[in-house]
Design goal:
The structure holds 2 protein chains of 2 kinds.
Chain A lengths: L1 H11 L3 H21 L5 H31 L2 H4 L7 H31 L5 H27 L4 H17 L12 H8 L2 H14 L2 H29 L1
Helix pairs in contact in A: 1-5, 2-3, 2-5, 3-5, 3-6, 3-7, 3-9, 5-6, 6-9, 6-10, 9-10
Chain B lengths: L2 E12 L2 E12 L3 E5 L6 H9 L6 E6 L8 E4 L11 H11 L6 H10 L15 H12 L6 E5 L7 H16 L3 E6 L2 H7 L2 E6 L2 E6 L1 H8 L4 H19 L1
Parallel strand pairs in B: 3-7, 3-8, 5-6, 6-7
Antiparallel strand pairs in B: 1-2, 1-4, 8-9
Helix pairs in contact in B: 2-3, 2-4, 4-5
The chains are: A mainly alpha, B alpha/beta.
């Protein structure tokens, strides 16, 4: 199990999608927007927004493509007939992908601290990791679900884009929705990505009540996606 | 001779279409069994049911031991390599899947035996089709299995690569490993198999040693034997209709 986890981490270091979408884009986006958008507290907002963006890009979009390839190559079928159970393998790779996603988030945060001098306590960082853990894993579960009903890469790209971009744009990740139409604000309230961004900001600002409320919402999302992803594997049996 | 696997009345349909129809077969220890037939004959579905990947609609499969998963090496039709991993990393991953403890030196030795030592740091996506197949077969042997199942191991390969795969199968057979492989390459079958199963339209039409079947039909090569057996079946089926 540890070997699967270690190899997942090792292979991720060579993944060009990870490098581009979860490291380069969020880091450059954070630095550029943080410098050019002259709004009070914007650096802190864009850092958390880009952390969340890098995480969803890796743990949902990138892993969806890896999952589809593994399904098409018969990896999951093969795992039914090896001594290692399918579930142990899935837990190991999910843990590996979650670790990488959290590392990407922390990398963006560290650039924010270096470039904008954000003052973040150790407790805030711990609280962020606590919320990144179930959220990243939720996205990994979502990637199992989406890859299970995508016939090929083209369909998968459409589905992942149709899910990711509305989640991003109906959130306060890059801009404030305070002046947006009522409908959009209502949607954003139930948007798990917005809840994630909000939880990161609450952790950063030590707003514990809001942090726990958004955390609870994310935990419920985690369990719902876990149940659905388990069903996709059982359905394929 | 001890029985490794035995299937009785195996039947499987997909969306109302019969893929495998009441298949009975027996594989004994030390056999090199070739399952031959055209695309869509039901070979892969039969193998998947034997292995336990696909549940049969009807019928039973007997396997020689309860812990058969750790004593069996399987190469599916698509090469199940892990994206972004090198040849050596893929092999390392399979040691985890088969729960064997091999050192880096052991893994390199395995790669060398398969003629892949130069490609150990190459991503599997960049390996040639022949190298991928050799690696796929190599990973089936890392845990010293008693049975190896190969689904069309030489499909899509050039003559040299086919020759290398055949040599690998023969070497495994000499080591006492029981091998089951599906194929529609009669040359491969005649060079390696000790027992053949002719499959057509989801049914096993004939099974036995190549010599026995050739003499039964009075034919001197497997290709003609296959054509004769399947043609006779088609004629019989047409008359029946």
């Amino acid at each position: 199990m540890n070997k699967v986890y270690t190899l997942t981490l090792k292979s991720a270091t060579r993944d060009p999608f990870l490098l581009l979408w979860s490291i380069i884009v969020p880091v450059i986006g954070t630095i550029a927007l943080g410098y050019f958008v002259k709004i009070a507290d914007y650096p802190a907002q864009i850092v958390t927004g880009m952390m969340a963006t890098g995480i969803i890009f890796y743990s949902f979009m990138t892993t969806s493509h890896i999952n589809l390839l593994q399904r098409r190559r018969g990896v999951f079928s093969l795992l039914k007939i090896t001594p290692m159970s399918l579930w142990r393998y899935i837990i190991s790779i999910s843990n590996g992908w979650t670790t990488i996603a959290i590392a990407c988030g922390l990398l963006v945060l560290s650039f924010g601290v270096i470039f904008f001098g954000l003052n973040i306590s150790f407790v805030s960082i711990l609280a962020m990791i606590v919320v990144m853990l179930p959220t990243s894993m939720s996205y990994v579960f979502l990637s199992f679900i989406v890859s299970s009903f995508s016939k090929n890469e083209s369909y998968l790209s459409i589905f992942t884009s149709l899910i990711t971009y509305p989640l991003l744009f109906c959130s306060n990740a890059f801009y404030s929705l305070d002046n947006a139409p009522y409908l959009l604000r209502t949607i954003s309230r139930y948007n798990p990505f917005e809840r994630f961004v909000s939880a990161l900001r609450n952790a950063m600002n030590l707003n514990w009540i809001d942090y726990f409320l958004t955390g609870l919402f994310l935990l419920i999302t985690f369990f719902v996606l876990l149940l659905i992803s388990v069903r996709t594997f059982k359905h394929q049996d | 001779m001890s029985v490794m696997m035995q299937a009785k009345n195996l039947t499987k349909s997909y969306k109302g279409k019969l893929a495998v129809d009441n298949v009975d077969l027996e594989i004994n220890k030390g056999d090199v069994v070739a399952l031959i037939g055209t695309n869509g004959a039901g070979k892969s579905t039969t193998l998947s049911m034997l292995l336990g990947i696909v549940k049969p609609d009807k019928g039973t499969v007997y396997r020689w031991c309860e812990d058969y998963k750790s004593k069996m090496g399987v190469q599916l039709q698509s090469t199940p390599f892990f994206e972004g991993y090198t040849a050596a990393e893929n092999m390392e991953l399979f040691t985890a899947l088969y729960k064997v403890d091999l050192s880096k030196a052991d893994i390199e030795k395995h790669l060398e035996i398969c003629g892949l030592s130069d490609a150990k740091k190459t991503s599997t996506a960049k390996l040639s089709v022949g190298q991928q197949k050799r690696l796929a077969i190599a990973v089936t042997t890392i845990h010293n299995p008693e049975l190896i199942v190969l689904d069309e191991p030489t499909a899509g390969l050039d003559p040299r690569a086919r020759h290398e795969i055949r040599n690998m199968i023969q070497r495994l057979a000499q080591e006492g490993v029981t091998v089951i492989f599906s194929s529609h390459d009669m040359e491969e079958v005649s060079n390696t198999a000790t027992k053949i199963l002719i499959m057509h339209a989801g049914k096993i039409l004939e099974q036995g040693t190549p010599e026995m079947l050739l003499s039964k039909y009075g034919i001197d090569n497997l290709e003609m034997l296959y054509l004769k057996v399947t043609d006779e079946y088609e004629e019989g089926a047409a008359k029946h209709e």
